[in-house]
Amino acid sequence: MTISRRTILRIGGGVLAGLALPRLLLAADAVEIRMKGNADGSHVWFDPMGLRIEPGQTVRWINLDPGNSHTATAYHPKIFERPLRIPEGAEPWNSDYLLPNESFSVTLTQEGVYDFYCVPHEHAGMVGRIVVGQPGRPPAASVSAQAAGGEPIPDIALQAFPPVDEIMRRGIVRRT
C-alpha cells in the first residue's frame, strides 16, 4: 500500500489544525471590561468592576467613554512604584492611555487576585479586581495600600474594590 502525497498533506494539515484549535478556543473565551463614564464626565468606572476567570483567559479592556481617556494598569511596584496587588511573580501591565473605542488585552495565567486601576481616575475610585482560578486565600498583597516610597492608594479606591468572596460567588460584580 502506498500513501499519496495528497494524503500526507491532508493528514499534516489536520494535525496542525488540531494543534491550533485549543488556542482559538481560548481566544474565544476572552472577557471584556468596559471603561465608562457619564455624559458630563463627573463619574467614571470599569464595567464589570469585579470578575472571575480561569487561568489562561484573556481580559480585554475597551474604552467606551466618549469623553475621557483611560488606562488599565496593574498595581505593581514596577509601574509608578505602586503597591503589589497582583500575585507575586505575575507580570504587571499598563495599557497606556486608551482613547475612545481603543482596547488593550492581557492573558492572565497565574491564579490569584489582580487589582488594577485607571491612572488618571484612581482618585475617583476607578479600580477593578480580577480573581483568576481558585485562590486559596487572598494574598497578603491584597491588603497593602502603600509601597515603600510609593504613593498610597486613595481611600475612595480602596473602598471601591469588590470583595473577593463576592466575586467568587457571583462571577461578575457590576457597579451599584
Outline the biggest β-sheet. Answer: 5 strands, mixed
Tally of discrete structural domains: 1
For the record, what is the CATH homologous superfamily label? Cupredoxins -  blue copper proteins
| Class by SSE composition | alpha+beta
What is the CATH topology classification name? Answer: Immunoglobulin-like
CATH class: Mainly Beta
Q: DSSP strand (E) fraction? A: 25-35%
Helix content: 10-25%
Q: What is the annotated CATH architecture?
A: Sandwich
Q: What's the total count of β strands? A: 9
Q: What Rg, in angstroms, do the CA atoms define?
A: 20 Å
Provide mean pLDDT, rounded: 85
Describe the structure.
There is one protein chain. With about 180 residues, this protein is α+β, with helices and mostly antiparallel strands. It has a single domain (about 30-175), classed as Cupredoxins -  blue copper proteins (Immunoglobulin-like, Sandwich). Helices cover about 20% and strands about 25% of the residues. It has three helices and nine strands; from the N terminus they run αββββββββααβ. The protein has helices spanning about 5-30, 155-160, 165-170, and strands at about 30-35, 45, 50-55, 55-65, 75, 105-110, 110-115, 125-130, 170-175. The strands form two sheets. Strands 5-7-8-3-9 form a five-stranded mixed β-sheet. It has a four-stranded mixed β-sheet with strand order 2-1-4-6, with no helix packed on it. A hairpin with a 6-residue loop joins β1 (about 30-35) and β2. Residues about 10-25 and about 140-145 have low confidence and may be disordered.
